[in-house]
């Protein structure tokens, strides 16, 4: 009798594992591209409901929060909650080899605790399948409770427009004043070479993603570092719209919805002007 081999076979059946197939692999590629300049190392937190990332930048000025619900994946299995420590720059290097129409299969097993396997598969019948093993790291958890703040002003606008504003105004100065009032939302910069103001008014377009929707309970005016706002706009590929939420004396939230199953959110503390 070959009892050892039989026991070995049973053990394999009960190995805890994480496996998820993301048909639109480019979504995850764009997430890593969007956060890698802010977050060097972070945990991919996997649970039965979702994959999430929550991490502060090295200066502890901004916070990144990513969520992909299990419904985003064509196949999703997570036997137990697990945190996979990754280097975003190393992950980005691997994802550069992903085709725009490739799917990604993620696999992590308890018997290989230091490895995250990723399979890239083309949708073509004769497409290649590439597999990569990313070495994982033990990253100290820095999970922060994000309060459910009722914001005084919320702006939904085309993400490409917000990207253009942040890029253009950075030429003039380092600090952007965002003020939400009756006339609309004003982005202002004052610098050594001059001043600039861009006013965005609420409007309705044929396509929802091209509309500007402003909900304001009271006027809000805050100052933010343009350098960080430009970092956030690297998530433009993830969504046609961006949602900006503000309240006095609390961090701004810049959210890029990912269809109806996830988001990438950036939190940034306002700058305090000294007298």
Automatic annotation (TrEMBL):
One of its GO terms (biological process) is regulation of DNA replication. It comes from the Eukaryota. Residues 145-271 form the Proliferating cell nuclear antigen PCNA C-terminal domain. It holds the Pfam family PCNA_N. GO terms for cellular component: PCNA complex. Residues 17-143 form the Proliferating cell nuclear antigen PCNA N-terminal domain. It is found in: Nucleus. Keywords: DNA replication, DNA-binding, Nucleus. GO terms for molecular function: DNA binding; DNA polymerase processivity factor activity. The keyword Isomerase does not apply. Belongs to the PCNA family. PANTHER family: PROLIFERATING CELL NUCLEAR ANTIGEN (PTHR11352). NCBIfam families: pcna. This is DNA polymerase sliding clamp. It comes from Nitzschia inconspicua.
């Amino acid at each position: 009798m070959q009892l050892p081999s039989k026991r070995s076979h049973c053990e394999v059946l009960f190995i805890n594992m994480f496996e998820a197939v993301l048909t639109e692999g480019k979504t995850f590629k764009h997430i890593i591209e969007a956060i890698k300049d802010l977050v060097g190392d972070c945990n991919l937190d996997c649970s039965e409901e979702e994959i999430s990332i929550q991490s502060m930048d090295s200066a502890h000025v901004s916070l990144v929060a990513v969520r992909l619900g299990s419904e985003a994946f064509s196949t999703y299995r997570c036997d137990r909650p697990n945190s996979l420590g990754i280097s975003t720059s190393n992950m980005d290097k691997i994802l550069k080899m992903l085709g725009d129409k490739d799917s990604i299969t993620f696999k992590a097993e308890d018997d290989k605790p230091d490895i995250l396997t990723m399979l890239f598969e083309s949708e073509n019948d004769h497409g290649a399948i590439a597999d990569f093993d990313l070495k994982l790291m033990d990253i100290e958890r820095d999970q922060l409770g994000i309060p459910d703040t009722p914001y005084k002003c919320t702006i939904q606008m085309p993400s490409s427009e917000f990207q253009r504003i942040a890029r253009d105004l950075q030429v003039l100065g380092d600090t952007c004043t965002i003020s939400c009032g009756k006339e609309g939302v004003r982005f202002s910069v004052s610098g050594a070479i001059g001043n600039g103001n861009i006013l965005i008014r609420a409007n309705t377009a044929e396509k929802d993603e091209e509309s500007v929707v402003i909900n304001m309970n009271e006027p809000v005016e805050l100052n933010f570092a343009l350098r960080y706002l430009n970092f956030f706009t690297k998530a433009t590929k993830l969504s046609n719209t961006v949602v900006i939420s503000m309240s006095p004396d609390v961090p701004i939230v810049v959210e890029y919805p990912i269809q109806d199953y996830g988001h990438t959110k950036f939190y940034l503390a306002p700058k305090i002007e000294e007298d």
